Amino acid sequence: MGRRAQTAQALLVITLAAWFVARSGFVFSGEYGTSGITATSGVIAMAAVGGLAATVLVIGSRRLSSQATLWVLAGQALLAFGPYLLVGEVWGPVAGAVVASVLFTMPHRISWLSGVLVIALDVGLSAVFGQAGAVGLALVGRLVIDVLVGSNLFGVMLLTDLTRRVAAERAAHAALAVAGERFDNAERMRVTLGTDLSAVLRLSRLGMEGEQARARLSEITATARRAAHTARSIIDTRREMSGGQAGADAPSSQTTMISPRLAWLFTLATTINCALLVLVNFAFYVRPSFAGWVLVLLTLAGSAALQMYHGAPQVAGRPPRRWRWTLPLHLVILTVAVALTGPHFAPTITLAAGAVLYRWRLPWSLGVLAIVMAELLLVMPSSATVGDHVYLVASLTGALIQVYAYCRLPDVARELAQASAGLARLAVVRERLRVTRDVHDLLGLSITGISLKCELIARLADTDPARARREFHELGTLALRGLADIQAAISGTPELRFAEELRAVCSLLDASGIQAEVEVSAAALPAAVDTLLATVVREAVTNVIRHAAGATTCKIALTTRDGTARLRVTNDGKPDRAVRAGAGTGLVNLSARLAAAGGRLSAEPDGDGFVLTAQVPPRAAQPGRLHPARLGRDPDRVDPIPGVELGHR
């Protein structure tokens, strides 16, 4: 899961935790008097609320089968309504958690009706088990709370799920782009390099006999040169993206988007529900005069309008122009209202505080939140219990998160969607770099060896025909090795063996007129270390043949000490300027491969020659770390398939 999706999941967890604390605090509030709650009923209530919060989190993860989801919903219904039989009037309202789960899991055509039935059942049970005479406004308040909690939890669950889907689609989009690039590279190598090496294999099998022997040798030489040119064109990372990749930059028509309008509607529903809760509070506890009702209604209307102006996600994606003025004005109005009337305006001022958290910088927003919290605690009546204070603080926390989530998650989804094309292109470049490196490291020796063998055969044709025929047949071995290297470069999983590579490089050194001196005193090496050192010796000898002018001797020594393998390749030639400056890509690639294995590479002049030393520690026997083409383990951050890289780190 990507970092953004993890953040969204964390918002859901915190929201549920705040709801659990708020509901638990409500059970122990002064709502039911000093004898309304006992130790047993309190434990039952807290356990049931905790179970509801946990099941909402499980359902929100979407990891359950359809049948398992139905069982969880049945368990939620038992947790939501069963405690009425055990706890009575102390219980509820908690059906909002069931409503959110129903809306989240059931088909659209029945989900809303099912949600209405759940709320109706909860209100009905409250009327049956509630105190006599407390049916009217108390039941309306419970209805509003169920609707408010249900819509809020459903909104956070839905936005979290959509963010997770957007992150997954982003990875899939990049993977599709890389697959296209890999297909293009495979076609280029099979059609061009594969055809050339197959031609070398076919001609080598005809042997040196016959009048056409020299013509075949000339054709093989020309084919090897053409293959070398093709390999260089594949290595050129500056070539244009293929036609298949052009379409990768365009957003997919199936891309999931978190609509700001959807989040705006949830914010509107929350704002209306909070306003209704304020009205219920005034009607139940204050019972103001006609003038008082007018003032309360005007304050609520203005507060709702300002909340939707600066506290809701904007459909256009741009913040409102004057929010820096309207947001402080909104806070001042509600602060005065709370100071004059008490905590009854708490639902609306908490929404405004959520807008502060989203709009203002962190130090300022935290200061404002502290002031709002302090004021609400100060205006609590003297008869308020610890449960009342806990309920207030937890409710404020939940409201902050919900407003922040509704405003922020659509922005995050928009950023992810806009980044998809760039990430897909980056993934293609990484795959291209990976193929470039493997073509250089794997195919370089095979193609160079064919050219060198052709030159040697041309010199031996008249002086040593028997050896010329042997060398001619070895061209087929090199061609087969090259075809295998093509497949390894395409798949990204080269399987080299040090002993085989050692024999091959010694043959090429001999063909180049360079005497090979080999000393191997190492114990059996782990397969991964053996593969890595095979790559090193291949590249090292290729550099000797290509870049060491006047070299007559090449010494290859492999030893082990305390489990650490040490490969040393020395030659007496004079390295060219590119090698002395370290400008070539071969040594850079080897350094990257060894660094991934926890080893190190040194390459430097040594008197009149040049020495390359590679050391690999025992812990390098972890195959995944030795294949730079594998997922997320390449030191130069080159991945064939995205999923770990691509911005998740």
Walk me through the structure.
- This protein is α+β, with helices and mostly antiparallel strands.
- The chain has a domain at 496-626: Histidine kinase-like ATPase, C-terminal domain (Heat Shock Protein 90), CATH 3.30.565.
- It contains 21 helices and seven strands.
- The strands form two sheets. The chain has a five-stranded mixed beta sheet with strand order 1-3-4-7-6. Strands 2-5 form a two-stranded antiparallel ribbon.
- A hairpin with a 2-residue loop joins strand 6 (600-606) and strand 7 (609-616).
- Helix 7 (136-204) runs antiparallel to helix 16 (465-491), helix 10 (260-286) packs antiparallel against helix 11 (290-310) and helix 11 (290-310) packs parallel to helix 13.
- The longest helix is centred in the middle third of the chain and has 78 residues, at 386-463.
- It starts with a helix and ends in a 23-residue tail after the last helix.
Write a brief caption for the model.
By secondary structure, this protein is α+β, with helices and mostly antiparallel strands.
Could you say what the CATH topology of the domain at 496-626 is called?
Heat Shock Protein 90
Q: Please state the average pLDDT score.
A: 76
For the report, how would you describe the main beta sheet?
5 strands, mixed
Question: SSE order, as H and E?
Answer: HHHHHHHHHHHHHHHHHEHEEEEHHEEH
| Proportion of residues in extended strands | 5-15%
* Poorly predicted sequence stretches spanning 5 or more consecutive residues: 241-257, 621-649
Supply the helix-strand structural class.
alpha+beta
- The name of the CATH architecture of the domain at 496-626 is 2-Layer Sandwich
Number of strands: 7
- Main CATH class of the domain at 496-626: Alpha Beta
From the alpha carbons, calculate the radius of gyration and give it in angstroms: 37 Å
Overall geometric form:
elongated
N/C terminus separation: 11 Å
Q: Please, how many helices?
A: 21
Neighbour order of strands in the largest sheet = 1-3-4-7-6
Specify the CATH homologous superfamily of the domain at 496-626. Answer: Histidine kinase-like ATPase, C-terminal domain
- Helix content bin: over 70%
